[in-house]
Every structure is written in structure tokens, then in C-alpha cells.
Amino acid sequence: MPQLTKILAIAIMVFIPISSYSHDNEKHSLIGESKADKLDQCVEPTEVMQKKHFEFLYHQRDNTVEKGIRTKNHSLANCIDCHVSHDEKGEAIPVNAEGQFCQTCHVKTAVNIDCFTCHATVPRDSASKIKSTGYNKNIHIESAAHNLVKYYKENEYER
Q1: 85 pairs with which residues across the strands?
Q2: Helix intervals (H) in 89-156
Q3: Most buried in the list 11, 25, 62, 83, measured by CB within 10 Å?
Q4: What pLDDT is recorded for position 94?
């Protein structure tokens, strides 16, 4: 009997992927309000985005980094701009802050979010408005990148 249990468990893991359980059609209950809260659908149907958003982001990344093709449809910056919530003062709450859009689902599905080790967690025009909290650790990356770009422009760096 234990052998049958093992076979059944393996069959379930193989034939029913974990991603099929992400979200379970639950609505987000986040603190604050975002542009996305006022929309009926994302850039793709909601069910598709819930299960395949990372594929769109990887494809966008590859097109941008490897081919120099930049579009907004599946760009991470566009996602952040639309899905970031704002507090009662109108300031952006980072999407990876506790209880926020990206963090909530990624914790629930036990998936690591590594996007924000490099990318901003709030729209660029709002990054400077974030107060000194534990969530602004990515702002220094943007500042360093901005300074690097400025340096190269000032020194007329060419490839």
C-alpha cells in the first residue's frame, strides 16, 4: 500500500503543476489603491497573467537586453507603474512590501522574487517620494545607475 501512495503522490506532482493553483481566482486585498484596481483586465486576460506573467517578463527582458527592442506591453516598469498601490498621502508603496501586489502572491505560492534586486519597486517618478523605511533599499541602485549614465554622457563614452 505505501508503494501505491508514493506512485499516486508522484503522479499528482507530475500531472498537476503547482502553477495551476496560483491565485485560485482570489481577488487581491491590498493596502492602498493602484491604477490596476480600476481596470477590468491587464495587458493580457487576468487568468493568463496570473499563470504566465513571468514568461512575458522573461521574453521582454530577452528582447530588450539582447535585441534592443523596448516595448511597454510586458515591461516590468509598466507593470510596476500600474500595479503599485499608493497610501493615503499619495505616496507609492513598493510592490514587494508586505501585503502588496507582487509580494502577496509570491509568498503564497512560495516563489522567490528576484526582479527587485535590480529593478525599482515603485514607479520612477515616485521613487524619490518614498520615505526612509525598510523598503527603499533599491533606490540606491537607481541612483548609482543614474550617476553611471551621467558619467558616460559627460565623458562622451562610445562603444
Answers
A1: 93
A2: 101-108, 139-154
A3: 83
A4: 92
Q: Please state, in angstroms and rounded to a whole number, the distance separating the CA atoms of residues 117 and 106.
A: 15
Are 42 and 73 spatial neighbours (Cβ–Cβ below 8 Å)? no
pLDDT in tens, 53-103: 989 998 888 988 888 888 888 888 889 998 999 888 888 999 899 888 888
Q: Is the pLDDT of residue 112 over 80?
A: yes
Output DSSP code: residue 96: T
Give the C-alpha separation, 157 to 151, whole Å: 9
Residue 93: what are its φ and ψ, rounded to 5°?
-105, 125
Inter-residue contact 109 to 24 (CB < 8 Å): no
For the question of whether the overall pTM of this predicted structure is more than 0.70, the answer is no
The residues that bridge with 92 in the sheet, in sequence order, are 86
The domain spans of the chain are 23-154
Q: Is 84 exposed, middle or buried (0-12, 13-18, 19+ CB in 10 A)?
A: buried
